[in-house]
Design goal:
By secondary structure, this protein is of the alpha/beta class. It folds into 2 domains: 90 residues, Orthogonal Bundle (Arc Repressor Mutant, subunit A), CATH 1.10.10; 206 residues, D-Maltodextrin-Binding Protein, domain 2. 42% of the residues lie in helices and 21% in strands. The strands form 2 sheets. An 8-stranded mixed sheet has the order 4-3-5-10-6-9-7-8, with helices on both faces. Strand 1 and strand 2 form a beta hairpin. Helix 2 packs across helix 3, helix 2 packs across helix 5 and helix 3 packs across helix 4. The chain is elongated.
Length: 303
């Protein structure tokens, strides 16, 4: 396969051609590029020789584009403009600080995105870059600066601080609660439509585990719904499709707004797991990371 060096002409003749084609004058192109008219003419001839195509029709005091030259002008002008804009962007952003944050869908959609204006206001000098995935190794890839991950707090090579514990209880919409079978105790859930999360979070609590922790051994007899995204699990519950397991700090906004309610406030289950904010041990004292960690504890943790 040929390289770009073999397939493309040198850059200087292309720049001379773009200016000459736009101005329809070698003299004006020379003034624009701080070159003589003769130098521009020489570069155009070298480009025509390279391409094997005449690009300009030369008269005594004027030049005009050939059909091939006009077609080539459209491509060259657009390509040089894109290259110039990309170069400008890189030069402007070269000193800009970027903080890459890894997290799962639940944290990204339900906690970070609603608070993104607060985050950018707190760190105006930093551009946040969200790496959202339910695959842990993606959230902890080498280009991630800091992550919010669910687990037991043990990640080799990372410093971790527990953001909030796992506290789980049923949630449903007021409409579902008002029209569905009686729901006064955990045993009643076996007669309800339960929305189950089925995704990469193998260590997230399931309905069966939650019921076992509440000493409910009754089989679930009502067909529910299975979804592979926790934000969509909560959305389904909000729309009245059944009862979901609510993680305390993730559904707080919905509970406050009244779009969800907790029908069994005395049946919450807690475990030793939780969400942790963690970052590479080698970057322990990085000021942007430390600032983001502090912001997480101030902005994401419910009282």
């Amino acid at each position: 396969m040929k390289s770009y060096r073999q397939k493309l002409p040198p850059l200087d003749p292309l720049i001379a051609f773009e200016a000459s084609a736009r101005n329809l004058s070698f003299t004006k192109a020379g003034r624009e590029l701080h070159l003589t008219q003769a130098a521009i003419s020489q570069q155009i001839r070298s480009l025509e020789s390279y391409l094997g195509v005449q690009l300009f029709i030369r008269a005594n005091r004027s030049v005009s584009l050939t059909p091939q030259g006009r077609n080539f002008q459209h491509v060259v002008a657009m390509t040089l403009a894109n290259l110039a804009n990309a170069t400008t962007d890189l030069r402007i952003k070269g000193d800009e600080s970027t903080l890459t944050i890894g997290c799962d869908q639940a944290i990204g959609n339900m906690l970070l995105m609603p608070r993104l204006p607060d985050l950018t206001a707190a760190f105006p000098q930093v551009t946040p870059r969200l790496m959202i995935s339910d695959v842990e190794k993606i959230c902890l890839s080498t280009d991630v600066d800091v992550a919010i991950i669910f687990g037991d707090g043990t990640w080799h090579g990372f410093h971790a601080e527990k953001l909030f514990p796992e506290r789980i209880f049923p949630v449903c919409s007021p409409e579902y609660f008002g029209k569905s079978p009686e729901l006064r105790k955990a045993d009643d859930l076996s007669q309800h439509k339960l929305i189950e999360l089925v995704d990469e979070h193998w260590n997230w609590m399931t309905w069966r585990q939650w019921l076992d922790r509440n000493r409910v051994n009754t089989a679930i007899v009502t067909k529910g719904l299975a979804v592979n995204s926790y934000p969509l699990v909560i959305e389904a519950a909000t729309q009245g499709h059944g009862i979901a397991l609510g993680w305390d700090h993730l559904v707080g906004r919905e509970l406050e707004k009244g779009t969800l309610l907790n029908p069994l406030p005395n049946a919450a289950v807690e475990s030793e797991l939780g969400y942790y904010v963690l970052w590479p041990a080698r970057a322990h004292n990085h000021p942007d990371i430390r600032g983001f960690v502090d912001w997480c504890f101030q902005s994401l943790v419910r009282d």
